[in-house]
Amino acid sequence: EAGVVQSPRYKIIEKKQPVAFWCNPISGHNTLYWYRQNLGQGPELLIRYENEEAVDDSQLPKDRFSAERLKGVDSTLKIQPAELGDSAVYLCASSSTRQGAYEQYFGPGTRLTVT
Amino acid sequence: GNSVTQMEGPVTLSEEAFLTINCTYTATGYPSLFWYVQYPGEGLQLLLKATKADDKGSNKGFEATYRKETTSFHLEKGSVQVSDSAVYFCALSTGNQFYFGTGTSLTVIP
User: Fold this and answer.
1) Do B46 and A31 touch (CB under 8 A)?
2) Please, are residues B103 and B23 in contact by the beta-carbon 8 Å criterion?
3) Taking a C-beta distance cutoff of 8 angstroms, is the pair A37, A91 a contact?
4) Least CB-CB distance to A48: which of B34, B44, B96?
5) Are A92 and A8 contacting, i.e. CB atoms less than 8 angstroms apart?
6) What is the pLDDT of residues A32-86, one digit of tens each?
7) How many Å apart are CA B52 and CA B33, to the nearest integer?
8) What is the rounded CA–CA span in Å between residue A30 and residue A13?
9) What is the per-residue pLDDT across B57-82, written as a single tens digit (0 to 9) for each?
10) CB contact, 8 Å: B88 with chain A?
């Protein structure tokens, strides 16, 4: 079974530039999560999707961050414009409520550096 | 609200030493509890889980017991190896919402 796929793995951009991250969850997983992980910290939820619906985006900085999950499968997270403080690892995870939603499976993450 | 508090690191142990990483939680209802491990440059991997009180999760020599009376889920291993060097995260879930601790970095030296 293929795991959660994320791309790119690394991204370096200058501040004020836009950036986008892509995630392909495990096949059949209806719940998709985007997290931000700062150095030395645990993951912090940005947004959670149930199928194509964003059911929890309370921690998403909506002035510059946006996300979409078309057709309830792949998802894209965008930052525009990026700020220095956005440097972090962005993790995507998925789970299946049909399996009791007890486990999340994480992708390798995208390490973003804003200069 | 829901939260997880983890023992702060970093932790440095010699190979074959005994490991304990403390984790306590606050939750409404009956959460599931997890330990995730993160190796350098990688995402989080599920290490073990427990879904109800008194359950013991185990994997790769690691163990943790869900203690409702002390709201704890401490991670233990009897004999650590160099390859266990990583960051360990305690987490809880209530349905589809997950809450992570800040992580404990473990370094095992030969």
Assistant:
1) no
2) no
3) yes
4) B96
5) no
6) 999 999 988 889 999 999 999 999 898 899 999 999 998 889 999 999 999 999 9
7) 8
8) 32
9) 999 999 999 999 999 999 999 999 99
10) no
